[in-house]
Design brief:
By secondary structure, this protein is mostly helical. The chain has a single domain (about 5-150), classed as Cytochrome c oxidase, subunit III, four-helix bundle (Four Helix Bundle (Hemerythrin (Met), subunit A)), CATH 1.20.120. Helices cover about 80% and strands about 5% of the residues. The protein contains five helices and two strands. The protein has helices at about 5-30, 35-60, 70-105, 105-140, 145-150; strands spanning about 65, 145. The structure holds protoporphyrin IX containing FE. Protoporphyrin IX containing FE binds near residues 26, 34, 42, 102 and 117. Keywords: Membrane, Transmembrane, Transmembrane helix. Pfam families: DUF420.
Length: about 150
């Protein structure tokens, strides 16, 4: 596996792991196993942070990959990608809010936010995997240019 596909594979795996942990954590909350709920949700947040660190370092050091499939499918890919990026950004804001509400013991609000956060996070993971499959599995990825190169004109 090349460096161009290694990092996206690892980071996408962390989104999936995080979403699975959120599903487990939600189930624990419903069953009132709240100590375990807390631990599992913190683990889900750590997995999400690891995803973001890998994704951000790769974007800066290795670059983003252009669409490598047929031209007529590119608009669908871009639509999916933008939808995924918006979902991921909203999920991050909602996730931080849910965590803060949990730690401040504002549990009525936490419960409401937590449900929305979890659902948004599931869709983020599903669309993230779809973007990965479109970009690296179904079609060979296009040209990759590091942000650092773009900034410094290398
Ligand atoms: C981003 C991380 C988290 C998410 C997505 C999340 C999600 C949820 C969800 C969906 C529920 C409601 C379950 C239901 O009834 O359907 C819930 C309940 C709860 N969560 Fe979290 N949670 C997170 C982190 C935490 C943390 C860090 C704590 C503790 C500090 C915590 C403590 C609780 C408690 C005590 C409840 C029960 C609230 C009640 O029923 O009044 N959660 N959480």
């Amino acid at each position: 596996m090349s460096i161009y596909t290694l990092f996206p594979t690892i980071s996408t795996s962390f989104i999936v792991i995080s979403a699975i942990l959120v599903a487990i954590g939600w189930r624990l909350a419903i069953r009132r196993r709240l100590d375990e709920h807390k631990k599992v949700m913190i683990a889900a947040a750590v997995a999400a942070i690891i995803f973001f660190i890998i994704y951000a370092s790769r974007t800066i050091l290795v670059g983003n990959t252009e669409w490598g499939g047929p031209d007529n499918l590119e608009k669908y890919y871009v639509f999916f990608l933008v939808f995924h990026i918006i979902l991921a950004t909203v999920a991050a804001v909602f996730g931080i809010t849910t965590l803060v509400l949990g730690f401040r013991e504002k549990f009525a609000k936490h419960r409401k936010w937590g449900r929305t956060t979890s659902v948004i996070w599931f869709f983020t993971a599903i669309t993230g995997v779809a973007v990965y499959v479109l970009l690296y599995v179904m079609y060979p990825g296009g040209h990759t240019k590091p942000m650092i190169d773009a900034i410094f004109g290398l």
